[in-house]
Design brief:
By secondary structure, the chain is of the alpha/beta class. Helices cover 22% and strands 27% of the residues. It is built from three helices and eight strands. It has helices at residues 65-71, 98-112, 124-135, and strands spanning 3-4, 22-27, 33-41, 48-52, 75-79, 89-90, 117-122, 141-147. The strands form two sheets. A six-stranded mixed β-sheet has the order 2-3-5-4-7-8, with helices on both faces. Strands 1-6 form a two-stranded antiparallel ribbon.
Length: 157
């Protein structure tokens, strides 16, 4: 898979975004790897609030929420989905599928070791995050706060 990466200096001095970057390498599904960026602010032992953004945004979306959560004693974690923000960007349009986004985030969650998360999910972050919670293949969420997200796993009721 051909990967594009936005140079780190493009993110210098963004207004209201003083956060340190963190990166996790995951398999890309084709024998290579992808670098996923995430923010991780607050007490490392605090209750985790995981914020998954939608399209076309990135973790910058949560820049005003993160300090409030940290001040309240939470650990605020906000990844950039593959293709967004500081995360790697596959070059081919065909590389972007819902199934791949779910698998990439499943792998990222497993590698970060986050547990008992409070999931805040918006737009595509909702589609991806709720799918992972429903499958119970990733750390189970303690609470779910969907914001403009669709749940497709509710059955007929």
């Amino acid at each position: 898979m051909k990967i594009l990466r936005t140079p780190d200096e493009r993110f210098n001095d963004l207004p209201g975004y003083p956060f340190e970057p963190h990166y996790t390498l995951i398999p890309d599904g084709e024998g290579g790897s992808l670098r996923i960026h995430h923010l991780d602010e607050g007490d490392p032992d605090g209750e985790v609030v995981l914020m998954l953004h939608g399209e076309p945004s990135w973790s910058y979306l949560y820049r005003k929420m993160i300090p409030i959560l940290v001040d309240a004693g939470f650990r605020a974690v906000a990844p950039d989905l593959v293709g967004f923000g500081r995360s790697d960007k596959p070059a081919r349009r065909e590389d972007y599928t819902y199934a791949r986004h779910v698998e990439w985030m499943r792998e990222w969650l497993n590698r970060t070791g986050l547990r008992g998360i409070n999931l805040v999910c918006q737009d595509w972050g909702g589609l991806i995050g709720l799918r992972l919670v429903a499958e119970r293949t990733s750390p189970r969420a303690a609470r779910i706060i969907p914001t403009h997200a669709t749940w497709n796993g509710c059955g007929n009721g």
